[in-house]
Write a structure and sequence with these properties.
mainly alpha, single chain, two-stranded antiparallel sheet, about 45% helix, about 120 residues, 4 helices
């Protein structure tokens, strides 16, 4: 049996054969480069399962936006008032207008987390 004819004919003594471009096995036309046994169905591999997105990005976005908003609101409410801060919050009044920059920084970080969220 010639080599070109061997690939196009069912060989009962072998369970698998190397397939050419158009091959008939078990009376059916099969796709090229798929190895299969007679009578078995072998589907081509499907798409790979995709990795689930960053689950932490959504909650981090919300928390960062809320912290930034609260930071700015507290600054505006307490600005110009003579408040006796506790000793561990004295640094808040010392920052002055930099509190706006810090609050906006948290909000910008929330937009960064929104880009990571899928």
């Amino acid at each position: 049996m010639s080599a070109s004819l061997r690939h196009a004919v069912y060989l009962p003594d072998r369970t698998t054969t190397r397939l050419s471009e158009t091959t008939y096995r078990c009376g059916q036309k099969v796709a090229p480069t798929i190895r299969r046994r007679c009578g078995e169905r072998q589907d081509p591999p499907g798409p790979k399962p995709q990795k689930i997105g960053n689950r932490w990005a959504g909650p981090a976005m919300l928390i960062s936006a809320i912290i930034g908003l609260v930071w700015i609101v507290v600054f505006y409410v307490l600005n110009g008032q003579d408040v006796d801060y506790p000793s561990f919050l004295q640094w808040y009044s010392d920052l002055g207008n930099w509190n706006l920059v810090i609050g906006m920084g948290f909000i910008v970080a929330a937009f960064g987390f929104a880009m990571k969220w899928e």
